[in-house]
Amino acid sequence: MWFSLMVANFVQLVTASYSLHINCGGKMVAINGSIYDDDSDAGGPARFQHSGTKYWGFSSTGDFMDNDSTDYYTVSNQSKLSTTNAELYMNARLSPISLTYYGFCLGNGNYTVNLHFAEIIFTDDQTYNSLGRRLFDIYIQGKLVNKDFNIAKEAGGVGKEVTKSFHAIVTNTTLEIRLYWAGKGTTSLPYRSVYGPLISAISVKSEVRDLDLHTSIFTLRQIKAATNNFDFANKIGEGGFGPVFKGILSDGTIIAVKQLASKSKQGNREFLNEIGMISALQHPYLVKLYGCCVERDQLLLVYEYVENNSLARALFGPEEHQIKLDWPTRHKICVGIARGLAYLHEESRLKIVHRDIKSTNVLIDKDLNPKISDFGLARLDEEENTHITTRIAGTYGYMAPEYAMHGYLTDKADVYSFGVVALEIVSGKNNIYRRQNEKSLHLLEWVSILMLYSYQIIFKINDERDKNIVRFI
């Protein structure tokens, strides 16, 4: 009972937000079932906002060239609106040079960012107010996605709405949307302080289907129904602490269920570790954890289903399960694993050492992209305590020597393991394999023999100049 309660509280603690809606420069408003947060406070060039589970803020830089008059950062409609959701476009936030919105505490993954615009300062009549022209650049996550954006031109006139949609990847729980004055357009027509970027609303939503599955609590009945009562026909793998089953939820979502031994202390430790690590870390190259189940004697973890099983099976599994991987695909897999590790080591809020990177813990999706899995042995990377030895865990043959022999753990241990996996990908050979009637041979030993043989060939070159060239290369 205490274990179930602890897990439920833990899941609630680490739940992140997967959407964000802001009515820039305006009051809180409900549009199509979504609540757009209030952003009507005009005071100051920066603000941090907390609304329920949503955390966001903005900063504005620059000074309007307006003879020391008071700067206004929000504006109200001056033209006749021709929009479907007029409440979103009655007000807007304005900046002289740079306007940046930040979304915080977002779950990592892929997002669609919708930016809503309407030119509400200029007019479309034949008066002086129609002479203004506004141009600015749009950056998402530091990348230029739209240059010299002109609201009125894109919308087909002033007072008309236009929504620009962009793809964004959140890897460190933070989204940055920056609008930057391009230094073009008018600065004093129809009057001063009307140039610079202007935005009406922001809506951000995760591209993962809205399943409400992010670190959810599942019932044992749901899991049994999904896996046909853990039917052996649905078994797709065997982890270090239990089997893995394929299942289908009532809404059609395909899942993978890892069944851990509840009576094992190691199983309990891995269970909590997986929930704590993966639920707080979401990335395109990490397997997604949907939730868990703690009921009766069952400890169950529910993941996204990854179609092509493990990298190990794709490379050197039974022939009927192997996948022909060309060199560009092998390169893509190596790069994907490296990006996943870079996120764990450097980009995430929690710095994590996986401790068990190997080809069986890398899954391959339908598009042959890698996803790092199995975080049961993962540890927080405590840089100031690298001299402290830890209980050695992992798989021999993939462990860094300093960790295997002395227990010194840093993120370099994962880098070493990645190097072994990269050799497996390039060579198509398992790290540990057996020659007929001979003892087992490690892949690293095999590579060392090849390197030694290649050096012997090099040293047999007679021409001294050629030897120098080879040595330089």
UniProtKB/TrEMBL annotation:
**Alphabetized GO MF terms:** ATP binding; protein serine/threonine kinase activity
GO CC terms, sorted: plasma membrane
Top enzyme class of this protein? Answer: transferase
Q: Where in the cell is it found?
A: Cell membrane
> What GO terms in the biological process aspect are recorded for it?
defense response to oomycetes
Task: Name the domain of life this protein comes from.
Answer: Eukaryota
Instruction: Write the record's keywords in alphabetical order, separated by commas.
Output: ATP-binding, Cell membrane, Glycoprotein, Kinase, Leucine-rich repeat, Membrane, Nucleotide-binding, Phosphoprotein, Receptor, Repeat, Serine/threonine-protein kinase, Signal, Transferase, Transmembrane, Transmembrane helix
Pfam families, per this entry?
Answer: Malectin, Pkinase
Fetch the InterPro entries from UniProt: Kinase-like_dom_sf (IPR011009), LRR_Rcpt-Like_S/T_Kinase (IPR051824), Malectin_dom (IPR021720), Prot_kinase_dom (IPR000719), Ser/Thr_kinase_AS (IPR008271)
The record's PANTHER family line, in alphabetical order, gives:
LEUCINE-RICH REPEAT-CONTAINING PROTEIN DDB_G0281931-RELATED, LRR RECEPTOR-LIKE KINASE
Entry protein name: non-specific serine/threonine protein kinase
